[in-house]
Design goal:
By secondary structure, this protein is of the alpha+beta class. It has one domain: Nuclear Transport Factor 2, Chain: A (Roll). Helices cover 34% and strands 38% of the residues. Strands 2-1-6-5-4-3 form a 6-stranded mixed β-sheet. Helix 1 crosses helix 5. The chain is globular, with a radius of gyration of 15 Å.
Length: 159
């Protein structure tokens, strides 16, 4: 039972990486040119950079998009809950990337987007393949506007 829960958690982790992974910046200048706008359109633009990754799934960029106080809450189909802080989550993502085949999956259905001054909120559905089945995950993201960019402060993944 515990091993099954651990395996489900690791699968959800890998899914969330594929769901929200991002491009490795070629240099700091090119990243700075991608600064967000403090608008709903800018918020959507920032999340789309995570949905449309390159083959490197850049952990350095995750560091800039994930807020230092970020928390990830993952709830699997059996209502098991795992909570991760930024560095823990990045470490888990890095460990799952070793030797894994990476694929692009850009399907996203935005359910709700909202900006209220320096706070942003997105609810999005993502389709992912676990084994040979397509699964649909709901991901809820809370953003904060700091340092002229949107940063994820909380991510809740229902799998």
């Amino acid at each position: 039972m515990i091993l099954s829960t651990v395996n489900q958690t690791l699968n959800i982790l890998l899914i969330s990486l594929v769901i929200f992974s991002c491009n490795e910046p070629k240099n700091q200048i090119s990243y700075m040119k991608q600064q967000d706008e403090q608008t709903e359109k800018g918020l959507i633009k920032s999340i789309n950079r995570l949905i449309e990754p390159d083959e490197n799934f850049g952990l350095a960029t995750l560091d800039s998009i994930y807020h230092n106080d970020m928390i990830v809450i993952m709830i699997d189909q059996n209502d098991n809950k795992n909570i991760f802080k930024k560095d823990e989550f990045k470490t888990l993502i890095a460990s799952k990337l070793e030797g894994e085949e990476r694929t692009k999956n850009t399907w996203a259905k935005f359910i709700h987007t909202e900006v209220n001054q320096d706070k942003g909120h997105i609810v999005v559905k993502r389709r992912v393949s676990l084994t040979e089945e397509n699964n649909e995950l709901t991901v809820i993201l809370d953003f904060v506007w700091e340092e002229n960019r949107w940063q994820i402060i909380r991510e809740v993944i229902f799998g």
